[in-house]
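User: I'm writing a short report section on ligand binding and want a predicted complex to refer to. Could you take this sequence and nicotinamide-adenine-dinucleotide and write out the structure as tokens? A short remark afterwards would be nice.
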Amino acid sequence: MSFDRLSLEGKVAVVTGAAKGMGGEHVRTMTDRGARVLAVDLDRDALDMLVADIGAAAVAHVADVADLEQWEDVRDRALKLGGELSILVNNAGVVSHTRISQTTKAGWDRVIDVNLKGTWLGMKVLAPVMREAGGGSIINVSSAAGLDQHPDPAYTASKWGVRGLTKTAAQELGPWGIRVNSIHPGYIDTPMNDFASEELTGAMLSMLPISRPGQPQDAAELVAFLASDAAGFITGSEIAIDGGWTSGAQAFEARRFR
Ligand SMILES: NC(=O)c1ccc[n+]([C@@H]2O[C@H](COP(=O)([O-])OP(=O)(O)OC[C@H]3O[C@@H](n4cnc5c(N)ncnc54)[C@H](O)[C@@H]3O)[C@@H](O)[C@H]2O)c1
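Assistant: Sure. The structure tokens for the complex follow:
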């Protein structure tokens, strides 16, 4: 395979949840590989800092992914970047850290609206434009929680939803030349995990075959690959990037007695 198939030169990408954590790293990695990126987030200050650091290849756009009209603005803004809009990374996500009996209706709705409805809206609004550009690649950021579970019930349901929605989209959009895959990060060192105590982090990492926190760059390398022509035969797939967490964390207990 020639290195050129990994290049994103001439492509335009939309990345949501782009201001911080993994999203910021997706923007950096894709612009490094030649893409122009519309970086979408609610956090204007963090977005402005990111694009100031990257330069002209990244453009900031404030929007809430849970809102249809704001997605239409995202589409219109992305089309003004020039080039072919051929990459969408549905990365924005929230978690509420409540249990079944404590979760409020509003709390449930917000997690589902951002994580699941936002992913659908992004595909609904941008897939027709990507079709006109000749096709492309959509990467939906689910979670290891979309392969097993998370203590937050709405988070688990939203991430299983993203995984299933990805299969539907892969079937429907394949004939338009659009590949759709979900990625399933495990523990990644981002602001989303700032809540975690040292004990919790230590316990989780000790159960991993690769016993370190994932870094945003680990996920960004996978996303940039899936966005590129080098991944041209991959669609409808679910790819764990979790240091082995979902390969059998329970085996850790058994290993201790071997
Ligand atoms: N960090 C992890 O361990 C981990 C593990 C598995 C999956 N994930 C998923 O990866 C994705 C990125 O996570 P992260 O850890 O980088 O999170 P993060 O909290 O560090 O960053 C998320 C970004 O999304 C933005 N955002 C939130 N709601 C939004 C909305 N409605 N519209 C637009 N932007 C919005 C936030 O402002 C923030 O900049 C999320 O979907 C998350 O669920 C994270």
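A remark for your report: Residues 16-17, 19-23, 41-43, 64-66, 91-94, 114, 141, 143, 185, 187-188, 190-193 surround nicotinamide-adenine-dinucleotide (CB under 6 Å). DSSP finds eight helices and seven strands in the chain.
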